[in-house]
Design brief:
By secondary structure, the protein is of the alpha/beta class. It is built from 13 helices and 20 strands. The strands form 3 sheets. The chain has a 7-stranded mixed sheet with strand order 6-5-4-3-2-1-20. Bound molecules: zinc ion. Zinc ion binds next to loops.
């Protein structure tokens, strides 16, 4: 069996891993890069309207035979670990004859991104897989494992072939709302793993707000909401469902109202089929929907889906009347509306996303003298969690991936580290 990491051996983002055994070939994840060749941040709009040839030349699309449109397919399948664009964002280039395997939640969120125009490709030829239900693809036997991650319904994959066992961790952590699945892997890990392809996003990072769990986030928010009289704005990703749950629960505990936008309400509504524990717009007194005018709300209006949220609608004047109970989901237009009406005094912004994104709005909040409080925990495993994971799995070899510091793995983990370079093919 041969393994090729097309991208991801020394960077975070753009993950793309190939396994081949005789005439069977699978690709695991096919993401957009997060950094460009010149180490600057990569913007996905860069690929719009560009030919495949030119994307090859720029190193944005990896050169892989039998994968793309207009050539006869040589892959049996693509496996997607989770719905983050750095793991699926290049799918639009793939020959649609190749089936794409993913969890139901992953499929729903990618479809949502397509619906709102954040992703340019309507999924086709999808095979939905369920955790712990094995399936065959050519010579490979694949068992998906549900993992805890900020990306919803994320999977790791155990892949068996010719007596070898490979475990691809995907992005994961142990401190989110599905921490139990991490604990379960530690207690009862898959046995006899030959190769652990281990995502190491946190390796080499100094992590602010370290070792906070999602539960800690809920506690911290609930404390703030109870003890401050201010109106809160909260900046978070609508697709980070663990975080949305934490905010909602903190609002319930402090008797505040989580004021979401129609975009968020739509996502939660779409995911209702996955779990009855995901907060919904119609859950009553601690959640409302502000119909902020923006392209997402317009899209929902066009589609006649906006109407659905009317029963939970809250107007600007109504928010004003309950301002010391308001926790308003931030968006570009939302904050503009409040600022325009000079309604930013006695407000606090909770920043609940990766700090790198803050620079986009920092100036705005400072200009309006809104204090910023960061309340966040990482979507990725902390070093200690990675160490526990490796100790439990006892792999014969660890293969670093999705990290800027593959050479540091040997400082943290005992055992054999197999360092690969992008595009090198090795026999397992
Ligand atoms: Zn991810």
């Amino acid at each position: 069996m041969n393994l090729t990491i097309h991208r991801g051996s020394k960077e975070i983002g753009g993950t793309c891993i190939e396994l081949q055994s005789k005439d069977s070939k699978i690709l695991i994840d096919f993401g957009l890069p997060l950094i460009a060749e010149n180490k600057e941040p990569f913007y996905s709009r860069k690929i719009k309207g560009q030919s495949v040839e030119s994307l090859f030349q720029q190193g944005i699309l990896p050169q892989i035979n039998g994968l793309y449109r207009n050539e006869s397919p040589q892959f049996n399948a693509i496996l997607l670990s989770h719905p983050h664009p750095d793991h699926y964002g290049l799918l639009s280039f793939v020959n649609p004859e190749i089936p794409v395997y993913m969890s139901r939640g992953c499929q729903i969120l990618i479809e949502v991104s397509y619906f709102f125009g954040q992703f340019n490709y309507e999924l086709e030829n999808i095979k939905t897989v369920s955790p712990w239900k094995e399936f065959n693809i050519g010579n490979f036997l694949v068992t998906p494992y549900l993992v805890d991650h900020s990306g919803f319904d994320a999977l790791a994959f155990l892949i068996e072939c010719n007596g070898k066992r490979i475990f691809y961790s995907g992005d994961f952590r142990g401190h989110g709302r599905k921490g139990i699945v991490f604990e379960n892997i530690l207690k009862k890990p898959p046995e006899g793993i030959d190769y652990l392809i281990l995502v190491g996003s946190q390796i080499g990072r100094t992590n602010k707000g370290k070792y906070k769990t999602e539960q800690d986030i809920e506690e911290e928010l609930s404390h703030l909401f109870k003890n401050q009289k201010e109106q809160f704005f909260i900046a978070c990703s609508s697709q980070n469902i663990d975080r949305i749950v934490s905010i909602y629960r903190a609002c319930v505990r402090s008797n505040r109202i989580f004021i979401i936008d129609p975009y968020t309400a739509f996502i939660l509504d779409q995911l209702k089929v996955i779990s009855p524990n995901i907060p919904q717009f119609d859950w009553g007194e601690n959640i409302s929907v502000f119909f902020v005018p923006n392209s997402y709300t317009e899209r929902l209006s066009e589609d006649k889906s906006l109407f659905k949220f009317k029963s939970a609608k809250i107007t600007y004047e109504e928010i004003k009347a309950i301002r010391n109970r308001a926790v308003i989901k931030d968006s570009y237009n939302t904050r503009k509306i409040f600022a325009k009406r000079k309604d930013m005094i006695n407000s606090i912004l909770i920043y609940s996303m990766w700090e790198g994104y803050l620079k986009e709005s920092k100036e705005f909040w400072e200009k309006h003298q809104v204090p910023i409080i960061e309340v966040h925990s990482s979507g990725h495993a902390y070093i200690e969690e990675l160490k526990d994971f490796v100790r439990a799995m006892k792999p014969r070899y660890i293969i670093p991936v999705h990290t800027f510091y593959p050479e540091k793995y040997s400082e943290y983990f005992e055992g054999n580290i197999k360092l690969l370079k992008d595009k090198d093919t090795v026999e397992l």
